[in-house]
Amino acid sequence: MTKHDPLAIAFKQGDESVFGELIELYQERLYRLAYRITTDADDALDVVQEAFIKIHKSIAHWNQTASFYSWAYRITSNLSIDVVRRRGRDRKARDRIAQTQGDMLGIAPSESDPLQADEMTIMVDKVKLAIEQLPPGQRSIVALRHYEGLSLNEIAEIRDCAVGTVKSTLHQAFRKLRTLLKKDLEAMQSLVSEMK
């Protein structure tokens, strides 16, 4: 149980006055998750709104032995995946992926070398596009693990699956990313070598 679960418990017991506080506590984190999965700001806002509507209507189904946070994340993640699936292969939002996705490279471009900075920007963009090509379920787990910093156990609770399934999905996602980025990663390793 998290420190915010008492608010959720109060809401579940009929105290409507705390719902606004729950929204304030969770809306930013739920938005970040929805944005990383949908890669579209408008879609992410819609997902968060729909998630809170669903939370409001379904609070009776929340099992208080599980974290409210995990339950809300599961709802948001599932709704986000639904949006991506409905959208199909639409790439209209490719340039609106969260900039923090470039952090997975673990390399900061040199501010004193504009060419190097441009090369890093291009690589970050390629990583963003590769992540967009992951199936929605894999993209969701990558977002929860690497951008939200959740443990494998927390992700398993949110996604309502075994920890082994989370590990397997992450492994498959990164194998696919390596395949998609093979040539680019080789070029990046060469660039990193030159930077040393």
Short note summarizing the structure:
The protein is mainly alpha-helical. Helix content is 70%, strand content 0%.
The level of helicity is 55-70%
Largest sheet: none
Q: Strand fraction band?
A: under 5%
Count all strands and give the number: 0
Number of helices: 9
User: What do we call the CATH topology of the largest domain?
Assistant: Arc Repressor Mutant, subunit A
Counting structural domains, the number is 2
Q: Any idea what the shape is?
A: elongated
Q: What is the string of helix and strand elements?
A: HHHHHHHHH
Question: Uncertain spans, ≥5 residues at pLDDT below 50?
Answer: 89-115
Structural summary, described in words:
The protein is mainly alpha-helical and 196 residues long. It folds into 2 domains: 1-93, RNA polymerase sigma factor, region 2, helix turn helix motif (Rna Polymerase Sigma Factor, Chain: A, Orthogonal Bundle); 97-196, Winged helix-like DNA-binding domain superfamily/Winged helix DNA-binding domain (Arc Repressor Mutant, subunit A, Orthogonal Bundle), CATH 1.10.10. 70% of the residues lie in helices and 0% in strands. The chain is built from 9 helices and no strands. It has helices at 5-12, 19-38, 41-58, 68-87, 114-132, 136-147, 152-159, 163-180, 182-195. Helix 3 (41-58) packs across helix 4 (68-87), helix 6 packs across helix 8 (163-180) and helix 7 (152-159) packs across helix 8 (163-180). The longest helix has 20 residues, at 19-38. Mean pLDDT is 78; it is low at 89-115.
What's the structural blueprint in terms of helices and strands?
Blueprint (H helix, E strand, L loop, with lengths): L4 H8 L6 H20 L2 H18 L9 H20 L26 H19 L3 H12 L4 H8 L3 H18 L1 H14 L1
Helix pairs in contact: 2-3, 2-4, 2-6, 3-4, 4-7, 5-9, 6-8, 7-8
